[in-house]
Write a structure and sequence with these properties.
Blueprint: E1 2-6, E2 21-27, H1 31-45, E3 49-54, H2 60-67, E4 73-77, H3 80-89, H4 96-117, E5 122-126, H5 127-132, H6 134-144, H7 151-161, H8 163-176, E6 183-184, E7 191-192
Parallel strand pairs: 2-3, 4-5
Antiparallel strand pairs: 1-2, 6-7
Helix pairs in contact: 3-4, 6-7
Length: 196
Amino acid sequence: FDLELQRLPRTAGAQGDQRARACVACYSNDTDKTVSEMRVFEQEKKKPVFGVIKAHRIGPQTRKSIAVGRIRNVYTIRDPRDAMGSMLGFGPPKDAEERRSLLRYFSAVLEQGTAFLGDGKSLVIRYEEMVVDPPAQVRAIARHLDLGLGEDLIGKVHEATGVKRMQKIVDKLEAEAEGDEDKWDEKTQIHVDRKS
């Protein structure tokens, strides 16, 4: 994963002293391994790590770290019918076994997400609420992560992650894709599917 040092603000009353911390952002299929690598980095650099891990499923050690407050979890949930419809429409048509496999996968993801609803450690954000009022959800996420974000920075986050910005990335990916090639943007994880 990419590591860069940044100054990240902390809200008053938090432990922070504005010291530089390592910032990690990545997608992970093995969150336990990723968290372990982040801890090794912390020990080697003697700096706390502020990490953002995007994952659909998380490992048992990651769950334990959330339960004891070592990791702050923001869990985004989308109406399962819409999510399933999106997955069915992504790529070539799915045969019966592929549809059953997707249903098993979504069932496991929903079971995992249900555990976060009342754990007292996780912030659960509904995808639909994020679409309707992104700045309000950014504020909630910032509070949960104990980040002191002013309205100017919240506006910049909204601008950088809003529909217009995402459409520009999609347009760029589609222009760069050749034939039925799938393209994705490493920074945002946005992808275009040219095979469907």
